[in-house]
Each structure stands twice: as C-alpha cells, then as structure tokens.
Amino acid sequence: MTHLTPNRGEHLPTALSLAASGVPALPLRAGKVPFGNCRRCTGNACGGRPNMKTPGPCACPAPCHGWAAATTDPDVLNSPAWARAWHEAAAVAYHPGGASLTVVDLDNADAITWARANLPATRTVRTTRGEHWIYQGAMASANAVRPGVDIKSTMAYARWLGHGTGPLTALPDAVRALVVKEPAPARPVAVTVPAGGGTCPHRTPRYLARGIAMAEQRITEASSAVHATVYQTFLAVLSTHGRCGCLTEAHTARLFTAAQAKGESPRHCTDAWANALTRLGL
User: What pLDDT score does 15 carry?
Assistant: First the structure.
C-alpha cells in the first residue's frame, strides 16, 4: 500500500475547487483512508447515515463516516471542525455517486487490458498501480467484481488524482452488469395448468392485481442493484402466474414500464423476462 505524506493543509484548496464544480470532497489521512469517526460517532452510535444504508451527507460537524463526510459546502470544508483533518490530510477524496459519477478502479495491467477490450473508452486517470475509468452516471458500488476491478460510485469514495484525459462517457450497461450477482436458482413452484385456459384456478383476479401492484412497487423502490431486482421480480411474478394463462400483455407492459422508469432499457427488460421464462422452463 502506498503511504502518503501529509501536506499540512495544502489539500483544502483542491477540495474547495472540487466542491465548486459540484463534486463532494473529503480529506484522507495517510494510507488512503478517511479520518476515523469522532467520539460522538464511534461505532455509528449517532445513527450515522452509512449505518442506515442510505446515501447522503453525514450530519456530524467533523469529517466522520468515511464517504458520507464528503460535501460540496465550502463553509463545512472551511469549518473549524475540519481544520485539524485538513492540517493532517495526506490526500483528497471524493464521493463519485454524489456527483453522478462511477469510477471503474483498474488495479493492474491485466485489468486495464480487460477494460480496453470490454468497456467503452471514457475519461481516464492514472493511479499508482493502474487507472480509474470514470463514467457519467451513478450506480451501486462493489469491490472485486472481477480480478483487479472495483466499482466506486454511491456510498464509496475514490482518491482525487486529477481531472484525467478524455471526455466522459455515459455509464454503460456493461459496467452496471458487473455488480449484478447471478440470481439464486428459483425454488420449484407447483402450478396447475388449466385445461383450455380460462380463469386461474388457484388465484383470484384481486390477488393477481395486488401481486402486479406489489411487483411494480418493488421495482420502483429499488435504490441499488436495479438489474437484479427487476430480474427477481419478473421471476417471482412468472413463478406464480407464468403457467396458468392469467398474465396479459397489459400486466407485462406495467412491469416493463416500471423497470424502464428506473433506467432499464427495453432490451434489458425483454432479456430479463426471457431469462426468467427460461429458468422456470416456460
């Protein structure tokens, strides 16, 4: 691990410049890690936002809670509560998701080679051991999505190493797909197939209507892992009603509309539906 040398307050101007451009900034201490929580916030006793698993700034006046301390407020960055941290800071970090950015952290030459072959070119920043590829758009963060590759966006921080080279590219589906885990195999579902179609024999129309509404709500409320949520929701709906003939195109359209409102493309909706059908043997 590279150990950084404190610059005795020289990082504050960089943080203020980032904040002025809408990028939430925070100080890092030696070792490329955030400053520890203050006594009031030790062990998230204060109920800090990371403890609640929701993105947003830390309410503590000191730079606590890692990524959640990042801010674009110059008064906070310049506040007396942050003065000691800036005096001891070894580097500046930022919260990519807070600026609607995603950093693909490529930690070695093999990871860079893989990215060049599989991801669209975008703004590139050189790091100590590899490169940061920066895309426009936020997503869930995840470590070790493949050898030498981390995703840093919402609820994560990345070290500021300069503006880099090249224009920003919109966050591609290929990057979003890196954090989607393979869904667990669906449990077998015993469903009676009605002879000649007709009314579903094991569910009432009211039950179906409520199920579709709940599925729409589950997709709409997804705050991360949208791809996986959409797939799992499609799988749940089809496992209950996929064989009985009670699903209509109108039901499918409602689910697809909810997914597309969360950023899914029509192709991804179609693929997720087809994959769910395949998994269930339909």
Answer: 96
